[in-house]
């Protein structure tokens, strides 16, 4: 684990399963239609139940870069919400600007609902095919530049050691 503490926010990175993160809100790497297929979205749907996808789709479609919030369905406490951050449109393509916008809008939604802790996956690096090192830089920078309001801790939950190293390096460069 790598940690960084700013004046009002702590950042950490871990290898693990976002659906069991000890946070109040988890971020789903969504598409703009908000259907939950594979990757992170599929894992959240399997753990939370179909109700989360139904809630999300009822709020969509949204523009790429935007975010919406649903309940956590059957996810374990302390998770209360899922923030669906659209990192791609129906074409399933992403970019640095979409990842930045989705990261920022998810943080803003977390602040709006009063979450004090959030977990993000590595947005855009699965189906979107974005490079992990670039995603880490964009996401860490966007979280630190955003207005997290009550969000005191952001946890980046990644799938393997190389991804953890990229996020740890991006966090370390902010020290």
Describe this structure in words.
With 175 residues, the protein is an alpha/beta fold. It contains five helices and seven strands, in the order E-E-E-H-H-E-E-H-E-H-E-H. The protein has helices at residues 39-48, 50-58, 96-113, 132-145, 161-172; strands at residues 2-5, 10-15, 25-31, 67-71, 81-88, 117-120, 153-158. Strands 1-2-7-6-3-5-4 form a seven-stranded mixed beta sheet, with helices on both faces. Strand 1 and strand 2 (10-15) form a beta hairpin. Helix 3 (96-113) crosses helix 4 and helix 4 packs across helix 5. The longest helix has 18 residues, at 96-113. The two termini are 15 Å apart.
Average residue-wise pLDDT: 94
Specify the overall morphology: globular
Distance between the termini: 15 Å
- Poorly predicted runs are none
Using only C-alpha atoms, the radius of gyration works out to: 14 Å
Number of helices: 5
What topology, given as strand order, has the largest sheet? Answer: 1-2-7-6-3-5-4
Any key phrases for this structure?
175 residues; alpha/beta; seven-stranded mixed sheet; 5 helices; 7 strands; 23% strand
Topology, please?
Elements: E1 2-5, E2 10-15, E3 25-31, H1 39-48, H2 50-58, E4 67-71, E5 81-88, H3 96-113, E6 117-120, H4 132-145, E7 153-158, H5 161-172
Parallel strand pairs: 2-7, 3-5, 3-6, 6-7
Antiparallel strand pairs: 1-2, 4-5
Helix pairs in contact: 3-4, 4-5
């Amino acid at each position: 684990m790598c940690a960084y503490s700013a004046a009002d926010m702590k950042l950490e990175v871990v290898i693990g399963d976002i659906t069991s993160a000890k946070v109040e809100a988890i971020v789903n790497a969504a598409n703009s239609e908000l259907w939950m297929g594979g990757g992170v979205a599929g894992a959240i749907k399997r753990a939370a139940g179909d109700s989360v996808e139904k809630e999300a789709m009822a709020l969509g479609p949204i523009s790429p870069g935007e975010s919406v919030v649903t309940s956590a369905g059957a996810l374990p406490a302390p998770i209360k919400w899922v923030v669906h951050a659209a990192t791609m449109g129906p074409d399933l393509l992403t970019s640095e600007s979409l990842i930045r916008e989705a990261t920022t809008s998810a943080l803003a939604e977390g602040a709006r609902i009063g979450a004090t802790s959030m977990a993000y996956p590595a947005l855009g690096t699965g189906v979107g095919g974005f490079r992990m090192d670039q995603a880490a830089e964009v996401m860490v920078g966007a979280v630190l530049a955003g207005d997290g309001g009550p969000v005191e801790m952001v946890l980046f939950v990644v799938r393997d050691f190389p991804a953890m190293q990229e996020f740890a390096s991006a966090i370390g460069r902010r020290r």
